Amino acid sequence: QVQLVESGGGLVQPGGSLRLSCATSGIIFSIYTMGWHRQAPGKQRELVATITTGDTTGYPDSLKGRFTISRDNAKNTVYLQMNSLKPEDTAVYFCSARRPVSGSPNYWGQGTQVTVSS
After folding, report:
1. Residue 30 — φ and ψ, nearest 5°?
2. pLDDT for 9
3. CA separation for the pair 14, 54 (Å, rounded)
């Protein structure tokens, strides 16, 4: 059974930081491109970051410099370090796993809430 379990969300003040984790099981983690996405109320889900099996990372221009994705293949876990958080970063954050031959994620986590507010 495949499981992706996010953790690390919560309430943080503007300018603060959070580190999200996504622990996986049931997949050969090292062969998957991992991603983080987010969905704010009333908005579509959007891609936040990706990391390939070769540790190549990708971010939308709007998030470059504030968010950093990383992975630990020994722990089957992907991380998202978020710095200088803004109220508009408030959303449910999801991790995903995509096989190299797939055009879209094959598996999703259940999400973790991030709220940026004073």
Report:
1. -65, -15
2. 97
3. 33
- For 27-73, write each residue's pLDDT tens digit: 999 999 999 999 999 999 999 999 999 999 999 998 888 999 999 99
Distance CA 54, CA 31 (A): 9
Distance CA 106, CA 82 (A): 24
Model confidence at 101: pLDDT above 90? no
**Structural contact between residues 118 and 13, judged by C-beta atoms closer than 8 angstroms:** yes
Element (H, E) at 21: strand 18-25
Please spell the DSSP secondary structure of 43-109, one letter per residue. Answer: S--EEEEEE-TT--EE--TTTTTTEEEEEETTTTEEEEEE-S--GGG-EEEEEEEE-TT-SS-SEE-
Q: Which residues contact 47 (CB under 8 A, 6 or more apart)?
A: 35, 36, 37, 60
Radius of gyration of the chain measured on its C-alpha atoms = 13
Half-sphere exposure of 61 (CA within 13 A, CB side): 0
Name beta bridge partners: 14: none
